[in-house]
Protein backbone atom coordinates (compact mmCIF):
# COMPACT_ATOMS: atom_id res chain seq x y z
CA UNK A 1 0.00 0.00 0.00
CA UNK A 2 2.76 2.44 1.00
CA UNK A 3 4.83 1.50 -2.04
CA UNK A 4 1.85 2.10 -4.33
CA UNK A 5 1.25 5.52 -2.74
CA UNK A 6 4.92 6.48 -3.19
CA UNK A 7 4.82 5.41 -6.85
CA UNK A 8 1.64 7.41 -7.41
CA UNK A 9 3.23 10.52 -5.90
CA UNK A 10 6.33 10.10 -8.04
CA UNK A 11 4.24 9.59 -11.18
CA UNK A 12 2.24 12.72 -10.43
CA UNK A 13 5.45 14.77 -10.41
CA UNK A 14 6.62 13.62 -13.85
CA UNK A 15 6.97 16.50 -16.26
CA UNK A 16 6.61 19.15 -13.57
CA UNK A 17 9.28 21.71 -12.71
CA UNK A 18 11.74 20.34 -10.15
CA UNK A 19 10.34 16.79 -10.37
CA UNK A 20 13.63 15.28 -9.16
CA UNK A 21 14.01 17.82 -6.37
CA UNK A 22 10.62 18.36 -4.75
CA UNK A 23 7.54 16.19 -4.24
CA UNK A 24 5.58 18.54 -2.00
CA UNK A 25 5.94 16.33 1.09
CA UNK A 26 8.37 17.99 3.54
CA UNK A 27 5.78 17.42 6.29
CA UNK A 28 6.70 13.72 6.33
CA UNK A 29 10.26 14.61 7.32
CA UNK A 30 8.92 16.86 10.07
CA UNK A 31 6.66 14.04 11.24
CA UNK A 32 9.65 11.76 11.67
CA UNK A 33 11.44 14.45 13.71
CA UNK A 34 8.36 14.80 15.91
CA UNK A 35 8.32 11.06 16.61
CA UNK A 36 12.01 11.19 17.59
CA UNK A 37 11.31 14.24 19.75
CA UNK A 38 8.63 12.42 21.74
CA UNK A 39 11.00 9.60 22.63
CA UNK A 40 13.97 11.43 24.15
CA UNK A 41 14.95 14.62 22.35
CA UNK A 42 12.61 16.75 24.50
CA UNK A 43 15.30 16.82 27.22
CA UNK A 44 17.73 18.60 24.90
CA UNK A 45 15.03 21.03 23.80
CA UNK A 46 14.16 21.87 27.42
CA UNK A 47 17.78 22.67 28.22
CA UNK A 48 17.89 25.12 25.33
CA UNK A 49 14.90 26.98 26.78
CA UNK A 50 16.42 27.23 30.28
CA UNK A 51 19.80 28.58 29.15
CA UNK A 52 18.66 32.11 28.13
CA UNK A 53 16.66 32.39 31.36
CA UNK A 54 19.80 31.67 33.36
CA UNK A 55 21.63 34.43 31.48
CA UNK A 56 18.72 36.80 32.06
CA UNK A 57 18.57 36.28 35.81
CA UNK A 58 22.32 36.11 36.40
CA UNK A 59 23.33 39.03 34.18
CA UNK A 60 20.12 41.03 33.82
CA UNK A 61 19.25 41.13 37.49
CA UNK A 62 22.52 40.15 39.14
CA UNK A 63 25.01 42.25 37.21
CA UNK A 64 22.24 44.68 36.28
CA UNK A 65 22.11 46.05 39.84
CA UNK A 66 25.60 47.45 39.37
CA UNK A 67 24.96 48.77 35.85
CA UNK A 68 21.62 50.50 36.29
CA UNK A 69 19.97 51.74 33.11
CA UNK A 70 21.04 51.69 29.48
CA UNK A 71 20.53 54.42 26.89
CA UNK A 72 19.73 52.61 23.66
CA UNK A 73 19.15 55.73 21.58
CA UNK A 74 16.04 57.40 20.13
CA UNK A 75 15.09 58.51 23.63
CA UNK A 76 14.87 54.99 25.04
CA UNK A 77 16.34 54.41 28.50
CA UNK A 78 15.76 50.89 29.86
CA UNK A 79 16.96 48.68 32.67
CA UNK A 80 19.86 46.40 31.95
CA UNK A 81 17.55 43.36 32.12
CA UNK A 82 15.29 44.95 29.48
CA UNK A 83 18.37 45.70 27.39
CA UNK A 84 19.64 42.11 27.23
CA UNK A 85 16.23 40.38 27.09
CA UNK A 86 15.69 40.99 23.32
CA UNK A 87 19.24 39.84 22.62
CA UNK A 88 18.64 36.63 24.54
CA UNK A 89 15.36 36.13 22.68
CA UNK A 90 17.17 36.41 19.34
CA UNK A 91 19.97 34.17 20.56
CA UNK A 92 17.59 31.49 21.83
CA UNK A 93 15.90 31.40 18.41
CA UNK A 94 19.33 31.06 16.79
CA UNK A 95 20.44 28.29 19.14
CA UNK A 96 17.23 26.32 18.78
CA UNK A 97 17.51 26.39 15.01
CA UNK A 98 21.23 25.90 14.62
CA UNK A 99 21.57 22.85 16.86
CA UNK A 100 18.75 20.99 15.15
CA UNK A 101 20.06 21.80 11.69
CA UNK A 102 23.73 20.98 12.33
CA UNK A 103 24.66 18.20 14.75
CA UNK A 104 21.39 16.30 14.30
CA UNK A 105 21.65 16.58 10.53
CA UNK A 106 25.32 15.57 10.55
CA UNK A 107 24.47 12.38 12.46
CA UNK A 108 21.69 11.55 10.01
CA UNK A 109 23.98 12.05 7.00
CA UNK A 110 27.11 10.29 8.21
CA UNK A 111 25.89 7.56 10.57
CA UNK A 112 22.15 6.85 10.41
CA UNK A 113 22.08 7.30 6.62
CA UNK A 114 18.46 8.39 7.01
CA UNK A 115 18.50 10.76 4.07
CA UNK A 116 19.76 8.03 1.76
CA UNK A 117 16.64 6.03 2.60
CA UNK A 118 14.36 9.06 2.30
CA UNK A 119 15.68 9.99 -1.11
CA UNK A 120 15.13 6.44 -2.32
CA UNK A 121 11.40 7.17 -1.98
CA UNK A 122 9.33 9.83 -3.73
CA UNK A 123 10.91 12.52 -1.52
CA UNK A 124 13.32 14.94 -3.16
CA UNK A 125 16.30 16.85 -1.70
CA UNK A 126 14.21 20.01 -1.27
CA UNK A 127 11.60 18.02 0.68
CA UNK A 128 14.32 16.85 3.06
CA UNK A 129 15.82 20.33 3.37
CA UNK A 130 12.47 22.01 4.03
CA UNK A 131 11.41 19.27 6.44
CA UNK A 132 14.55 19.44 8.55
CA UNK A 133 14.72 23.24 8.44
CA UNK A 134 11.00 23.44 9.21
CA UNK A 135 11.48 21.32 12.32
CA UNK A 136 14.41 23.47 13.43
CA UNK A 137 12.24 26.52 12.80
CA UNK A 138 9.52 25.11 15.07
CA UNK A 139 12.11 24.66 17.80
CA UNK A 140 13.24 28.26 17.42
CA UNK A 141 9.59 29.38 17.48
CA UNK A 142 8.94 27.40 20.67
CA UNK A 143 11.95 29.02 22.36
CA UNK A 144 10.78 32.47 21.29
CA UNK A 145 7.23 31.97 22.57
CA UNK A 146 8.39 30.42 25.83
CA UNK A 147 10.95 33.13 26.52
CA UNK A 148 8.48 35.90 25.62
CA UNK A 149 5.83 34.55 27.98
CA UNK A 150 8.38 34.81 30.77
CA UNK A 151 9.75 38.30 30.11
CA UNK A 152 6.45 40.05 29.34
CA UNK A 153 5.00 39.60 32.87
CA UNK A 154 8.36 40.78 34.21
CA UNK A 155 7.81 44.10 32.44
CA UNK A 156 10.82 43.71 30.15
CA UNK A 157 8.70 44.34 27.04
CA UNK A 158 6.43 47.32 27.54
CA UNK A 159 5.44 48.07 23.95
CA UNK A 160 2.75 46.28 21.94
CA UNK A 161 5.08 46.24 18.96
CA UNK A 162 7.05 43.69 20.98
CA UNK A 163 4.65 40.97 19.86
CA UNK A 164 6.32 41.19 16.45
CA UNK A 165 9.48 39.89 18.08
CA UNK A 166 8.00 36.38 17.84
CA UNK A 167 7.60 36.31 14.02
CA UNK A 168 10.99 38.04 13.84
CA UNK A 169 12.45 35.19 15.89
CA UNK A 170 10.90 32.70 13.46
CA UNK A 171 12.56 34.51 10.56
CA UNK A 172 15.86 34.44 12.46
CA UNK A 173 15.48 30.73 13.18
CA UNK A 174 14.68 30.05 9.52
CA UNK A 175 17.79 31.88 8.36
CA UNK A 176 20.14 30.16 10.79
CA UNK A 177 18.60 26.73 10.20
CA UNK A 178 18.95 27.06 6.43
CA UNK A 179 22.57 28.17 6.57
CA UNK A 180 23.38 25.71 9.34
CA UNK A 181 22.11 22.73 7.37
CA UNK A 182 23.86 23.91 4.21
CA UNK A 183 27.20 24.13 6.02
CA UNK A 184 26.66 20.76 7.70
CA UNK A 185 26.23 18.95 4.40
CA UNK A 186 29.85 19.87 3.57
CA UNK A 187 31.27 18.64 6.91
CA UNK A 188 33.13 15.32 7.09
CA UNK A 189 33.98 14.86 10.78
CA UNK A 190 32.94 15.88 14.29
CA UNK A 191 36.19 17.85 14.53
CA UNK A 192 34.97 20.02 11.69
CA UNK A 193 31.54 20.28 13.32
CA UNK A 194 33.16 21.74 16.44
CA UNK A 195 34.02 24.79 14.35
CA UNK A 196 30.35 25.73 14.57
CA UNK A 197 30.74 26.19 18.33
CA UNK A 198 33.95 28.12 17.78
CA UNK A 199 32.02 30.59 15.62
CA UNK A 200 28.78 30.77 17.61
CA UNK A 201 30.17 31.53 21.06
CA UNK A 202 32.21 34.63 20.08
CA UNK A 203 29.32 35.80 17.91
CA UNK A 204 27.02 35.57 20.94
CA UNK A 205 29.43 37.41 23.23
CA UNK A 206 30.41 40.25 20.88
CA UNK A 207 27.28 40.95 18.79
CA UNK A 208 25.71 43.45 21.17
CA UNK A 209 24.08 40.96 23.50
CA UNK A 210 25.39 42.48 26.72
CA UNK A 211 26.74 45.90 25.74
CA UNK A 212 26.57 48.29 22.77
CA UNK A 213 29.02 48.14 19.88
CA UNK A 214 30.25 51.64 20.72
CA UNK A 215 32.78 50.10 23.13
CA UNK A 216 34.72 48.72 20.15
CA UNK A 217 36.96 50.48 17.63
CA UNK A 218 35.21 51.47 14.42
CA UNK A 219 36.78 48.70 12.32
CA UNK A 220 35.63 46.08 14.83
CA UNK A 221 32.10 47.47 14.78
CA UNK A 222 31.96 47.08 11.01
CA UNK A 223 33.02 43.43 11.23
CA UNK A 224 30.39 42.69 13.89
CA UNK A 225 27.69 44.40 11.83
CA UNK A 226 28.34 41.87 9.08
CA UNK A 227 27.44 38.99 11.42
CA UNK A 228 23.90 37.53 11.36
CA UNK A 229 23.39 37.63 15.12
CA UNK A 230 23.95 41.40 15.21
CA UNK A 231 21.19 41.82 12.65
CA UNK A 232 18.97 39.47 14.68
CA UNK A 233 19.53 41.32 17.95
CA UNK A 234 19.09 44.74 16.38
CA UNK A 235 15.83 43.66 14.73
CA UNK A 236 14.32 42.14 17.88
CA UNK A 237 15.51 44.96 20.15
CA UNK A 238 14.00 47.58 17.85
CA UNK A 239 10.67 45.76 17.84
CA UNK A 240 10.53 45.41 21.62
CA UNK A 241 11.24 49.13 21.97
CA UNK A 242 8.60 50.05 19.39
CA UNK A 243 11.29 51.64 17.21
CA UNK A 244 9.63 50.81 13.89
CA UNK A 245 11.14 52.27 10.73
CA UNK A 246 12.33 51.42 7.23
CA UNK A 247 15.72 50.84 8.82
CA UNK A 248 14.50 47.37 9.83
CA UNK A 249 14.18 46.26 6.21
CA UNK A 250 17.91 45.58 5.67
CA UNK A 251 17.87 43.24 8.69
CA UNK A 252 14.87 41.37 7.30
CA UNK A 253 16.46 41.21 3.85
CA UNK A 254 19.65 39.80 5.41
CA UNK A 255 17.76 36.77 6.71
CA UNK A 256 15.78 36.31 3.52
CA UNK A 257 19.10 36.02 1.68
CA UNK A 258 20.31 33.52 4.29
CA UNK A 259 17.17 31.42 3.74
CA UNK A 260 17.54 31.44 -0.04
CA UNK A 261 21.24 30.56 0.00
CA UNK A 262 20.75 27.90 2.67
CA UNK A 263 17.97 26.12 0.77
CA UNK A 264 19.84 26.37 -2.51
CA UNK A 265 23.11 24.87 -1.28
CA UNK A 266 21.44 22.27 0.95
CA UNK A 267 19.34 20.98 -1.95
CA UNK A 268 22.34 20.99 -4.27
CA UNK A 269 24.55 19.15 -1.79
CA UNK A 270 21.99 16.49 -0.88
CA UNK A 271 21.46 15.85 -4.57
CA UNK A 272 25.20 15.40 -5.07
CA UNK A 273 25.53 13.09 -2.04
CA UNK A 274 22.56 10.77 -2.48
CA UNK A 275 21.16 11.05 -5.99
CA UNK A 276 24.16 10.24 -8.17
Structure description:
- There is one protein chain.
- A hairpin with a 2-residue loop joins β1 and β2.
- The chain is mainly α and 276 residues long.
- The chain has one domain.
Give the SSE map.
Layout: H1 2-13, H2 26-67, E1 69-73, E2 76-79, H3 80-101, H4 103-112, H5 114-118, H6 125-151, H7 165-184, H8 190-206, H9 218-224, H10 228-241, H11 249-274
Antiparallel strand pairs: 1-2
Helix pairs in contact: 2-3, 2-6, 3-4, 3-6, 3-7, 3-10, 6-7, 6-11, 7-10, 7-11, 10-11
Summarize the structure.
This protein is mostly helical and 276 residues long. It has helices at 2-13, 26-67, 80-101, 103-112, 114-118, 125-151, 165-184, 190-206, 218-224, 228-241, 249-274, and strands at residues 69-73, 76-79.
Question: Can you give keywords for this protein?
Answer:
2 strands; 73% helix; mainly alpha
How many domain regions? Answer: 1
Q: Return the string of H and E elements.
A: HHEEHHHHHHHHH
Which class of secondary structure composition applies to the elements? Answer: mainly alpha
Biggest sheet record:
2 strands, antiparallel
Q: Which regions are unreliable across 5 or more consecutive residues at pLDDT < 50?
A: 5-12
> What is the percent of helical residues?
over 70%
Give the number of DSSP strands: 2
Percent range for β-strand residues: under 5%
Q: What spatial order of strands do you see in the largest sheet?
A: 1-2
Rounded to an integer in angstroms, the radius of gyration calculated over CA atoms is 20 Å
Measured distance between first and last alpha carbons: 27 Å
- Overall pLDDT level: 83
Amino acid sequence: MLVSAAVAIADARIGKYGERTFSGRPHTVMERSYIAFKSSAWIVVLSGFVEPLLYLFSFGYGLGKFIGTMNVGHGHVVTYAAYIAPALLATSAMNGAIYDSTFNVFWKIKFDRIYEGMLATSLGPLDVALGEIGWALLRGFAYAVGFTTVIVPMGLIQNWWGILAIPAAVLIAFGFAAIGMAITTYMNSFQQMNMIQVVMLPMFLFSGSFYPLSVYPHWTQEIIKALPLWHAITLVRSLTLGDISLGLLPHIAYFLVMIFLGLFFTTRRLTALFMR
